[in-house]
Amino acid sequence: MLSAQIRLHLGTLDLDATIEAAQDEIVALLGPNGAGKTTFLRAVAGLVRSDRARVVLDDVVLEDTDLGVRVPTERRPIGIVFQQHLLFPHLTVLENVAFGLQARHRRDARVAAARWLERVGLGKYANARPSALSGGEAQRVALARALAIDPRLLLLDEPLSALDATARVEVRRELRRHLASFSGARLLVTHDPLEAAALADRLVILESGRVVQSGPVDEVTRHPRSRFVADLVGVNLLRGRAESGVIAVEGGQQITALDADDGEVFAVIHPRSVAIHRVHPEGTPRNVWRGTVRSVDLIGERARVAIGGSLPIVAEVTASSVRDLDLREHAEVWLSVKAAEVGVYPA
């Protein structure tokens, strides 16, 4: 069980966050660039000094600035896998995996390292130099080196981001298998929502050095609470005050939704629920407003259309609709959304 409270200033970063990870739990830390994700991991590992911190792992205090406790990095039972695997180029693959074991004076360091190389399928490269490995193979060696010391906490900082698409799929599969067999807590920093969903039990969203949302993967993706998360999952997120089923949002626009409780709420609208018209739509749709096309991004047979106006929103339509409606930048359009297509939950 990890409980980490980190507070520090580093350049323009003002980090003040508390994150917990239970034994056997994989927690993915997501957020925009500069949010403090990697800095948080490095502070937990003791690689950067915090202004104020309390880090407890399995009831053992690794750092408590109030009490003057700070266990050195090399004595913390923590394995780390960095984005750039950081293998020692002058050592063999086996020596790289054995490095942490030897630093802990393990007499069986080379034997244990060899076993780990076999586990990650790289036993035949034991005497090779890291330069002989592919990016995916090098990252698997880095994972073996981190796990070989039998850590109680595994920190992974963007472990797949430096790999090409083919290697990323293969290493993600390997990583999932080894993480499943690891009995300690695991904290993963990633910018990739697919990677987070594939590997993590719980998501923690960090923005501007603060935790803005935390919960199981399904809960966070179904109920985003920030623009960053909404963009990750590809939905429109609005915030406003609901009264009698009508939500007043910024810009003076009103949205009608079914079963919206009174009070501050978030409203989620999937881009596919937004209909685009060149003239005022016929019938009685509950939500209709005007807008101007800002951009059109074609993705295969679908297109995401960003629309500005009193209620900026993104719509997703077919490529043929783009042609039929002559959707281009600055085109004036009408938009409609059915009240039943607006998801609402308390803010």
Topology:
Blueprint: E1 2-10, E2 13-21, E3 26-30, H1 37-45, E4 52-57, E5 60-64, E6 69-70, E7 78-81, H2 93-103, H3 109-119, H4 135-148, E8 153-157, H5 165-181, E9 185-189, H6 193-199, E10 202-207, E11 210-216, H7 217-222, H8 227-233, E12 236-243, E13 246-249, E14 254-256, E15 263-269, E16 275-277, E17 287-299, E18 302-309, E19 313-318, H9 319-324, E20 332-337, E21 342-346
Helix pairs in contact: 2-3, 2-4, 3-4, 4-5
Report on this model:
By secondary structure, the chain is of the alpha+beta class. The protein has two domains: 2-228, 3-Layer(aba) Sandwich (Rossmann fold); 234-339, OB fold (Dihydrolipoamide Acetyltransferase, E2P). Helices cover 25% and strands 36% of the residues. The protein has helices at residues 37-45, 93-103, 109-119, 135-148, 165-181, 193-199, 217-222, 227-233, 319-324, and strands at residues 2-10, 13-21, 26-30, 52-57, 60-64, 69-70, 78-81, 153-157, 185-189, 202-207, 210-216, 236-243, 246-249, 254-256, 263-269, 275-277, 287-299, 302-309, 313-318, 332-337, 342-346. The mean pLDDT is 91.
